[in-house]
TrEMBL record:
It comes from Streptomyces sannanensis. This is Aminotransferase class V-fold PLP-dependent enzyme. It comes from the Bacteria. Signal peptide: none annotated. One of its GO terms (molecular function) is transaminase activity. Transmembrane segments: none annotated.
Length: 423
């Protein structure tokens, strides 16, 4: 590697891929936006803890006590990673999708929701359709703020409102003006939740500094692939609502009533929405990843990632048939997530060839952001299948795209191999 700092050690670097052309090659994981490999450090932490695994909040034994401490310390580590304010809650969930569905479930009954059509389906779909105002795709960060500002100014009546916005696009990698959008939301008395699934792995997320009300992210996109996600932020709506899941752990006191029914007193902490035995390994892995990224230093990680982004973009710019997809233009700040189409190629076939001939793992399709990708491709095709896309015949206009994405574990060789393969 010829740049800045070495990549962080991750699992999977030694996996060999059989090639159709014969022989085998080390797997080049260039689909970090879907799931990142585990950091070696996360794996080591999990392995060191595994013998001590026990039930959380449910046992008097030593291992149960230890696991409970570990779970609660993990919550504190995530709060520190996100720069949470006093009184903020950190709820462990299964994923970003789960986190946003949890928030949707606790909204006040008359809450209006504002969401750009460009969002990932996890941000676009959890809300009840009747309460949502879908905002058209902006063509600059400034236009995003103006669009939101206008939509909020128009709303009637002034009941509770929530804005849901991504920090970094899972399609274009472009950064959204979160701080400005939060200011616009608050100026109109609305709240804002940040979908940080693609932002948190690449940039520090400071909930207080950005002045967002909630942040959601996934462990498996943050080098901790153990089934855990996070919803962090203001506690009032979370505490006022019925539990997202009803069951043990969420309930403080349950008693039969004289009329035969049951009275339940729910917890007012994060446990209110964490019924059932929690995923302590997943939570611990997320906390371990948060610490590892903080220790590596986001300045260092960003410098390395920008170097890789420049390599990929310069390489793609050399190929006349390639069109890189962008909402905000070439100069927009971005993370290591780049989508493109290749003239004369079906994107699915192109991605399959990168795998079969070069051992490179990318993604093709509409990336669970159908309205955005259709806008970017200038196509109104219907896409069958979950997050899938129809085949275009070779030579036809693309109905789907190819996405290359990378991060803290990516060596230069992987992006160099990719650039050589596309060229
Ligand atoms: N939001 C964005 C921006 C994403 O990229 C993703 C995952 N592709 C999600 C939400 C959903 O994350 P998960 O599948 O972990 O729930």
């Amino acid at each position: 590697d010829d740049c800045c700092a070495a990549p962080l050690p991750v699992l999977g670097r030694d996996v060999l891929v059989p090639l159709v052309t014969g022989g085998e090659v080390g797997y080049a994981a260039l689909d970090y936006a879907a799931s990142t490999p585990a950091l070696q450090r996360v794996w080591d932490d999990v392995a060191a803890y595994a013998p001590y695994y026990g039930s959380v909040h449910r046992g008097a034994g030593y291992l149960s006590q230890l696991s409970t401490d570990l779970f609660e310390n993990s919550r504190a580590a995530v709060a520190e990673f996100l720069g949470c304010r006093p009184g903020d809650q950190v709820v462990f969930t299964r994923s970003t999708t789960d986190s946003l569905n949890l928030l949707a479930a606790v909204l006040p009954a008359d809450c209006q929701v504002f969401v750009f059509e460009t969002e990932h389906h996890a941000s676009l779909l959890p809300w009840r359709d009747a309460q949502v105002t879908y905002l058209n795709a902006p063509r600059s960060p400034q236009q995003a703020v103006e669009t939101l500002d206008r939509a909020l100014a128009d709303r009637e009546p002034y009941g509770p409102a929530l804005v849901c916005v991504t920090g970094a696009s899972n399609v274009t990698g472009e950064l959204w003006p979160v701080r400005e959008l939060a200011a616009a939301a608050h100026a109109h008395g609305a709240r804002i939740v940040l979908d940080a699934a693609q932002l948190a792995p690449h940039h520090p997320v400071d909930i207080a500094g950005l002045d967002v009300d909630w942040v959601a992210f996934s462990g498996h996109k943050l080098y901790a692939p153990f089934g855990s996600g996070v919803l962090a932020g203001r506690s009032d709506w979370l505490q006022d609502a019925e539990p997202y899941l009803a069951g043990g752990g969420a309930s403080r006191k349950v008693a039969r009533r004289t009329d035969g029914g049951v009275d339940v007193e729910w917890h007012t902490t994060a446990a209110r929405h964490e019924a059932g035995s929690p995923n302590v390994i997943g939570a611990y892995a997320v906390a371990s990843a948060c610490k590892a990224l903080t220790e590596a230093g986001f300045d260092t990680l960003i410098a390395r990632e920008q170097h890789l982004i420049a390599k990929v973009r310069e390489g793609l710019a050399e190929v006349p048939e390639v069109r890189v997809l962008s909402l905000f233009g070439d100069d927009a700040p971005r993370v290591g997530v780049i989508s493109f189409v290749v003239d004369g190629w079906n994107s699915s076939h192109f991605a399959a060839a990168l795998s079969a001939e070069y051992g490179i793992g990318v993604r093709d399709g509409l990336f669970c952001a159908h309205p955005l990708v259709r806008t970017l491709l200038g196509s109104d095709a219907a896409a069958p299948g979950e997050c899938g896309a129809p085949d275009a015949a070779p030579g036809e206009k693309s109905l789907n795209a190819i996405r290359v994405s990378f991060g803290a574990g990516t060596p230069d060789e992987h992006v160099e191999r990719f650039v050589a393969a596309v060229g």
